[in-house]
Amino acid sequence: MASTTSNISEQSKNSTSFTSVKALSESPELTSIPPSFTFTRNPNDEIVTDPEDDDPIPIIDYSLLVSGTPEQRAKTIHNLGKACEQWGIFMLINHSVSKSVMEKMADQIFAFFNLTEDEKQEFAGKDVMEPIRYGTSFNVSMDKVLFWRDYLKIVVHPEFHSPDKPIGFRDATADYCERTWKVGRELLKGISENLGLEANYIDRTMDLESGLQMIAANLYPPCPQPELAMGIPPHSDHGLLNLLMQNGVSGLQVLHNGKWINVSSTPNCLLVLVSDHLEVMSNGKYKSVLHRAVVVSNKATRMSLAIVIAPSLDTVVEPAKELLDNEGNSAAYVGMKHKDYMQLQRSNKHYGKSVLDKVKI
């Protein structure tokens, strides 16, 4: 394992001389972050709502979508479409993933990150298509500024993968992912109907039977200078939806009407983010949400667990033909295979909607 405790000044010169931010943060000599982690902020990009304000994030009651009266379901579908169109994010309550299942999954994610550095390095990968990838920052070989986070990404559908450690990780992951996969597909039925399409339209055209489901777990360790570092810069995600669980430590912000909104970490709720491929498929009616992870504390460790609900890798994602006509509603995006989009994302700067912009017409 590369040394993370003996010479912080050497690490400042060589940004790749450590294996994880967690190991770096635990160094007794660390009193300031290495220059390679200093993130230059745009002053015009720092308008943040008062954290004392209540979150204005829309709230969707999942139970009304799947088991409400026809009137309740119709209203929920309307509100679901409104949230996707105006915000690109909503808080999902009364969903079918139990508190105990969520807590068990969170415990196992922490257990993975608490493995030794050598154990975690067994799962280090460079190619975006590898089914299990552990790493740090975003793309260490390309990033000019490193981000204060470690990550674990796992493909769990259509073929299930899992690290063989820690004990219990595989079972907890299989259970959690099966439940969230069902929730995501039910949400996409409501979204299809809101777009005026048949309920199974997105499921069918995006080939979700062979669709890509991924875990993206992020760890943001304590930082001695949180005001200088960035967990993840502003970005949007590939896929259709992103179902996010947090551990009670704040740090997520979303861009809405030119301002960054602090999103609290509410227990037992899932945050659902609209992703790039839903924007493309809806021909821009729904917008993938720009979001970022800020480092807000030098004491607490933040964890987030995203479940990516995405088309199959061979699906060409393009605007739904049923939403196009000869009256000005022409295609605003070119079609691209999902796997090609992922490779494009990996080879580009991870900032804003730089990848989505490449498929806009």
From TrEMBL:
Ranges for region Disordered: 1-55
Top-level lineage group: Eukaryota
MF terms in GO: L-ascorbic acid binding; metal ion binding; oxidoreductase activity
Start-end of Polar residues biased regions: 1-42
Positions of the Fe2OG dioxygenase domain: 210-311
Protein keywords: Iron, Metal-binding, Oxidoreductase, Vitamin C
Coiled coil: none
Keyword presence, Iron: yes
Family: Belongs to the iron/ascorbate-dependent oxidoreductase family.
UniProt protein name: Fe2OG dioxygenase domain-containing protein
